[in-house]
Every structure is written in structure tokens, then in C-alpha cells.
Design goal:
heterodimer; A: 426 residues; alpha+beta; 5-stranded mixed β-sheet; 4-stranded antiparallel β-sheet; 10 helices; 56% helix; 19% strand; rod-shaped; B: alpha/beta
Chain lengths: 426, 225
């Protein structure tokens, strides 16, 4: 990729080169034409001067003329008056030892009734010299032009393009979910002004779309949770009616459990949508080891209830810049998944290092392919009440913060292991 | 106690009213922001139940005006939104508690009681039920005057039962009250059974009559014999 100005400069340089090549022959022809015209005029005026002087001065001037001016030849002729004829020719100049180009006028004069043939010539600049001089001059101008363009290019690139590079920088840094519409610096360049306006309106439209999407996700949750709340409240009243038979109570409770599951799924889907929409933008350095330790304490009741043997080790503390709430959801989902699927009396292993967090539990192999483990609504048929969204949410959060979340099953130890690795950590 | 229920969903509003009236409260209701504002300015209440998502205004603004005109009253915010922002804003504005839809009526009742207790009975914080008496400030539980060792979840469980005395409480409702959302239903039944069993054992061994009745497959009721 080349700089726009470098590319423009190349076209300018190519055009200048072409003009340079064309201008040399053109200048040569034009200047030579002017010179020849001038010389021709001089020759003709010399002739008219001679034809005016010679009849008066008669034989004396006629006799001395060859000695005074070697460029004029006057010889008696038999042919009567000839028309003037101008042409190029060459003569050997003995003092230069060179043949030099000349312009010559062939004409005739009548002096005292005697016709004379008149030849007047004038040396022309040598065309070699001529071409050399013109070429040199043109080349000099060409080089100066290129140099000037180059300097202006370099000098103006930074200053003139500043609004552009500045806008580029701002767009790179821009986060739709958090930043206000950027304020662009003033610019004199119409194109950049237009770019700023177009970017501004693009960002505004996206912000509006983002806000409405966010609003929709929240409204959808609201709209769904309220009817579920009505169902559950009514079922609770039914449940608390004292005359209800136990069979009825079980029906009511099953209906309530299903409605509650619906509410859980709805809440989990909303959370997934919000993570996908890059909500929960505020981030802080989170020590995953500390979060996990707190979660282990909060889940003590469940761990004790299943009589799980906990192996908790921590060497170093993984630090990640992320949203604290999402960090709690991520590790909480992994931990509860491990507790839920471990058999009574099984083991729960949590290992934290500076670069990774591992949560493992013993248990039978997965009843479905491991590749689908993080998919939505994949769940163990033995636990039909689970939402099947916990691990999907965990994966989504890990992906958002560039953490790698992997699963392995050790068939010998009968152990499921979830491993969270920090990208680019030492 | 006088309660004002501000909730736009009519069935839910009436259900809450019926439940709270049965608890002995005097309940007024409204589903409109404008009417709620008038009531807040004109009438004294002990506790407000405010739904944030009203069709004609944001309930958080009602929380603001309650804090201005009736600063001593308790405020319990109800919302269908799970967004953390709403929760934090609600609590920052001075709401005492925050409940997300859907909720158990028994949970709402327990929260209202807790809010009222904290707000209004600063001088008389003792809860009595039969021979059990509880001092919430020091979290001490006495059975027939003898202190018993009841801490953590067991203590919370007892408070919850007393708040909803004479009502059948499902295991799901109990689980959600004590452990919140962190427990999915799949885990709850046997787990709750164990915890209730432990609570009952502690009370009975301290000489307390067995107030806790089990309704098999359904839940538990705390009632005087």
C-alpha cells in the first residue's frame, strides 16, 4: 500500500517527464525557426543595403568588398535577374577547422548594366550546441520542479492530512457502547469536512440503532417476565389455598417449576444478548483467583450437601481487565456446573495460576459429543430442569475478553476439566 | 401498616393487594405514574412497592419523590429488568430493597416485613412466634428464654418461615429466598429437605414444639399447633 500523495506525485512526475521529452524537440524547432527568420531578415536587409550603395560607389566598393566582408560574394553573371533564394548550407571555417551551418541568400544585382550574382551568408548557431543547451536548461527546470513538488509533498503531508489521520485514530479508538459522538477538529479541507460529517452521521445512526436494540432486548425481557410473574403469583395463591389436595399441590408445583424455568431461560437469553451487544462495557482489573475463592465460599452449602472433596490451589492470581459482574457470572457458571455434575462424594478441583484457571470435577463421560458442550440448550438428559445456557454464557463471556475456554475429559481419572487461559499472558 | 402498591399489571397488582391484606396491611394500589405522584404527596404510607416500568413514567422518579416527601417510609423497588444499572440506581436513590420479576409472593412479604422492621421498629426489634423469640439486631434466637445456636442460613430460614407463618411455602420459594438465583431447580428438593430438617432438629432439641409441618411433595408450613 502506498501513500495517496506518493501515488499522486508519481502521476505528476510522469506528466512532467513526458512534457520534458516533448519540450526539447519542440523548443529546438521553434527557436531555430525564430533564429532563421531573424537571420533571413538580416540577409535581405544587407542585400537591399548593398543594392542601394553599389550603383553609387561603383567600382571602388566593388573591388574592395571581397576583402572587407568574406560573407558577401559578388560575381559577374550572364544570367539576368534571378529571384531571391534563401537556404541552409555549410561552409568550412578554416580558423575553426570545422564545417559550420550557414544561411545563405542567393540573389542578383545589376550594377551599371552588368548583371551580378550576389551570395550573402551568415553563420548559424551549431545545432548540436543548440540542442545541448536547450536540453540542459529543460532538464534543470524539470529537476527543480520535481524537487519542489517533493518538498511541498513532504512538508504538507503531515499538516494538511492531520484532520484525516486524526479522524482515523478516533475511529480506531471508538467504542459504540461507551463513547459519545466524537468532536472533529476544524479543517479547511472540504473533503475532510465532508468525511467528518459523514462519519458523524454514521456514528449517530449506529448509536441510535444500538440504543434501540438495547432497549428492545430489555423491553423483551420486561414483557416476558411480567406475564410469568402473573402466572407464578396465581399459582402461589392456588398453592397456599388450604383445602387443596396433595395431588393438586403437586400439579400446581410442577406448573410453577416450569414457569420458573421459563423465567430463568428468558433471563439467561437476555444476558447472552446483552453480552453479544457489548453491554456491560465498564471494565476493571479483576483477579480471577479472588473471585473464584469468593464463589467457593458462597457455594459452600451446595458443596457440603454433595459431600464433595475440594482441592483448591492458587499460585499467582490471574488478572484480567473485564467487567466484574461478567467475571462472576463466568466463574460462577463453571463452578456450579462442576458442583451440579459431580457425583455425591466426588471431587472438585480448582487451580489458579497467573495464566490460567482450571475447574474440574469427577463424573461419568458426557452423554453427548464434547464439541456441542458449549452450544446453547445442550444439557444432560439426567438434568432436564437445567436451562442448558450456563456454559454457552461462560463461553460467550470468555470470547468477549479474549480468554480461551476449553474442555477436556480424562477417562482414566474420570474427570471433566474446564480450563480458562489468559491470552498473551506470561 | 399502610402500603401503596404501584404496579401497572392489574392481575399482579390485585394479587399483591390480596396477599398483603391477608397479612394485615391496609393496601392502596395504583397503576399510573401520575396518580402515584398525587398519592405520594397527599397520603402517608409506611411502605411503598414501586414497579420501575410504568407505562407513563419511570418508577425511579417516584422513588425520588418518596424520598423527598416521606423520607421515613420504606421503599421496595420491583422491576422486570435484570439490568444491574436499575438495581444500583434504585438503591442509590434510597430504595430499601430491590426485587426482580418474577418473584414469590412469600418472598415479597418477607422483604416488606424486613423493610418495615428496619424502618419503623427501631426501638422494638423483637420477633416472637410461640416460644421462639428473635432479636434481629444481634441475631440471637431464644427458645423459651434459652438462647440456641442458630446462625447463617438456618437463621435466615427461620426468619423467612416466621414472616410467612401459616402459609404453605414451596421448596422453590425457600431455595430462592436463601440462595437466590444461584441454585437451579434441579438441585433444590433434597437440599431444602436437609436444611429444613436441620432447623427443625435444632428447635425441637431446644424444647420447642414442632411448629414446622411438612406437606409431602409440596413444601412446609410454620404454624402454631
Amino acid at each position: 500500500m502506498k501513500n495517496l500523495l506518493t501515488l499522486t506525485f508519481r502521476y505528476y512526475a510522469a506528466l512532467a517527464g513526458l512534457l520534458w521529452l516533448l519540450s526539447i524537440p519542440l523548443s529546438f524547432v521553434l527557436i531555430r525557426h525564430l533564429v532563421v527568420q531573424d537571420v533571413d531578415e538580416a540577409l535581405l536587409s544587407r542585400k537591399s543595403e548593398l543594392s542601394r550603395l553599389l550603383p553609387v560607389a561603383n567600382s571602388q566598393l566593388l573591388r574592395y568588398l571581397p576583402y572587407t566582408d568574406s560573407n558577401v560574394h559578388l560575381t559577374p553573371s550572364r544570367t539576368p535577374a534571378l529571384p531571391d533564394r534563401l537556404y541552409d548550407t555549410v561552409y568550412y571555417l578554416p580558423y575553426l577547422h570545422e564545417w559550420e551551418p550557414h544561411r545563405e541568400l542567393a540573389s542578383s544585382l545589376r550594377i551599371g548594366g552588368q548583371p551580378y550574382r550576389l551570395l550573402i551568408r551568415q553563420s548559424l548557431v551549431e545545432s548540436d550546441d543548440f540542442i545541448m543547451t536547450i536540453t540542459g536548461l529543460q532538464t534543470g527546470i524539470f529537476m527543480l520542479l520535481l524537487l519542489g513538488l517533493g518538498v511541498i509533498n513532504r512538508q504538507t503531508t503531515r499538516r494538511l492530512w492531520h484532520p484525516f489521520t486524526d479522524a482515523l485514530h478516533r475511529i480506531r479508538q471508538f467504542r459504540l457502547e461507551a463513547d459519545p459522538t466524537p468532536v472533529w477538529p476544524a479543517t479547511q479541507v472540504a473533503e475532510f469536512g465532508e468525511l467528518h460529517r459523514a462519519l458523524g452521521s454514521l456514528i449517530s445512526r449506529n448509536q441510535a440503532a444500538y440504543a434501540s436494540q438495547k432497549q428492545f432486548a430489555e423491553n423483551a425481557s420486561h414483557e416476558m417476565q411480567t406475564p410469568v410473574a402473573v402466572i407464578l403469583a396465581q399459582l402461589e395463591l392456588l398453592f397456599q389455598t388450604e383445602t387443596r389436595s396433595e395431588a393438586d399441590l403437586i400439579h400446581v408445583q410442577q406448573a410453577a417449576d416450569a414457569a420458573r424455568r421459563l423465567a430463568h431461560i428468558n433471563r439467561a437469553l437476555l444476558l447472552l444478548t446483552q453480552i453479544e451487544n457489548q453491554q456491560f462495557a465498564e471494565a476493571q482489573p479483576v483477579s480471577l483467583g479472588t473471585v473464584l475463592a469468593k464463589l467457593l465460599t458462597a457455594n459452600t452449602d451446595f458443596i457440603q450437601h454433595k459431600a464433595l472433596v475440594v482441592h483448591h490451589t492458587q499460585v499467582g492470581n490471574s488478572q484480567v481487565l473485564m467487567n466484574l459482574h461478567l467475571a462472576e457470572v463466568l466463574l460462577g457458571n463453571l463452578l456450579r456446573n462442576a458442583i451440579r455434575h459431580a457425583p455425591v462424594g466426588g471431587s472438585l478441583t480448582c487451580a489458579v495460576t497467573a495464566a490460567s484457571v482450571t475447574i474440574a470435577n469427577t463424573g461419568e463421560p458426557l452423554p453427548f459429543p464434547a464439541e456441542t458442550l458449549f452450544d446453547r440448550f445442550v444439557k444432560n438428559p439426567a438434568l432436564p430442569d437445567a436451562t442448558g445456557l450456563g456454559l454457552a454464557i461462560a463461553r460467550q463471556i470468555a470470547t468477549r475478553y479474549g480468554l480461551s475456554l476449553s474442555y477436556t475429559y480424562d477417562a482414566d481419572k474420570k474427570e471433566h476439566e474446564f480450563r480458562l487461559e489468559l491470552a498473551g499472558s506470561v | 401498616m399502610r402500603l401503596l402498591v404501584i404496579e401497572d399489571e392489574p392481575i399482579l397488582r390485585e394479587t399483591i393487594r390480596a396477599y398483603m391484606e391477608k397479612e394485615g396491611h391496609r393496601v392502596s394500589t395504583t397503576g399510573r405514574f401520575g396518580q402515584a405522584s398525587l398519592l405520594i404527596n397527599d397520603t402517608d404510607y409506611d411502605c411503598f412497592l414501586v414497579d420501575i416500568g410504568l407505562p407513563d413514567g419511570n418508577g425511579l422518579n417516584l422513588v425520588r419523590s418518596i424520598k423527598e416527601s416521606q423520607p421515613k417510609a420504606g421503599i421496595l423497588v420491583i422491576s422486570a429488568r435484570t439490568g444491574l444499572d436499575d438495581k444500583l440506581t434504585g438503591l442509590d436513590l434510597g430504595a430499601d430493597d430491590y426485587l426482580t420479576k418474577p418473584f414469590h409472593l412469600s418472598e415479597l412479604n418477607a422483604r416488606v416485613r424486613s423493610v418495615l422492621r428496619r424502618r419503623l421498629y427501631e426501638g422494638e426489634p423483637i420477633i416472637n412466634f410461640g416460644v421462639i423469640n428473635i432479636q434481629p439486631q444481634s441475631q440471637t434466637v431464644r427458645v423459651a428464654g434459652q438462647p440456641i445456636d442458630l446462625t447463617g442460613k438456618a437463621y435466615e430460614l427461620l426468619l423467612y418461615f416466621i414472616a410467612n407463618k401459616n402459609r404453605l411455602l414451596s421448596k422453590a420459594a425457600i431455595a430462592e429466598h436463601i440462595w437466590g438465583d444461584s441454585m437451579e431447580l434441579a438441585d433444590s428438593h433434597d437440599f431444602i429437605y436437609q436444611h429444613v430438617k436441620n432447623l427443625r432438629k435444632k428447635l425441637v432439641s431446644a424444647g420447642c414444639p414442632d411448629y414446622l409441618k411438612t406437606r409431602y411433595g409440596a413444601g412446609y408450613i410454620l404454624a402454631l399447633p
